[in-house]
Design goal:
single chain, 226 residues, mainly alpha, 11 helices, 0% strand, elongated
Length: 226
């Protein structure tokens, strides 16, 4: 009697097809990719699958663009997701290639960058074509505030709240983004600054939730006698 076989392992294409169906619906209902709140491990699975399939196709026919075009939701979620978790001090592409299990070069950056912009447009997401960073600018905008940039952002918001008790999101956004006040955000990393200046309603919502979180933390500390 033969041993019972376990469940069949999902192929990379099948994985991407599953994620595409799930994520396309989410992404069509948001303004920025970060709003969809796709789990990090799922995003990185998709990045690796895309990178491996892209590499295989590129070796055979000289171009992997057709691979990337098949899964627009997976592409924008994985590329912006790496920006959320891994971006630091101006470095993105080496970290993305690591997540994608692929050794990319400057030509590949152009291919993936163009594919990202086209995928975002197909999903009804803004392409941020006005960014002076043609590819990295839109990717970072869709990431919101990368994790590595949060420290300065939290410090600035906490300092503003200390100087102006009762500060709300509307007040902070008015203080930080009004014309002629660009220097007020200069201590932030560029992705955080650009997000606050151009993130629209989602940036407002992020600030609002951050202020609520800071208020809760202060209240908790007061309860412990700090």
């Amino acid at each position: 009697m033969s041993e019972q076989q376990g469940p069949r392992q999902v192929t990379r294409r099948e994985l991407l097809n599953i994620r595409e169906r799930q994520w396309e619906r989410r992404l069509r209902g948001v303004s920025l990719v970060a709003e969809a709140e796709i789990p990090e491990n799922h995003r990185k699975q998709a990045a690796s699958a895309l990178g491996i399939l892209y590499g295989q196709r590129k070796l055979k026919v000289g171009s992997g663009t057709a691979v990337l075009a098949q899964w627009p939701a997976c592409l924008v979620a994985s590329m912006s997701g790496v920006a959320v978790t891994d971006y630091k001090q101006g470095t993105y592409w080496p970290l993305f290639w690591q997540a994608a299990s692929y050794q990319g070069d400057t030509d590949d950056q152009r291919v993936w960058g163009e594919a990202f912009i086209r995928a975002a447009s197909r999903l009804g997401l803004p392409a941020f074509s006005e960014s002076h960073l043609r590819y990295l600018g839109p990717i970072l905008m869709h990431a919101g505030i990368p994790a590595n940039c949060l420290g300065d952002y939290f410090r600035l918001l906490a300092e503003r709240r200390r100087q102006e008790p009762g500060l709300d999101a509307e007040g902070f956004m008015a203080w930080s983004t009004a014309p002629g006040r660009g220097l007020r955000l200069s201590e932030l990393d560029k992705p955080a600054e650009r997000f606050l200046l151009g993130g629209g309603d989602y940036a407002y919502d992020v600030v609002d939730r951050t202020i609520d979180m800071l208020a809760s933390m202060i209240q908790a500390l007061d309860g412990f006698g700090y």
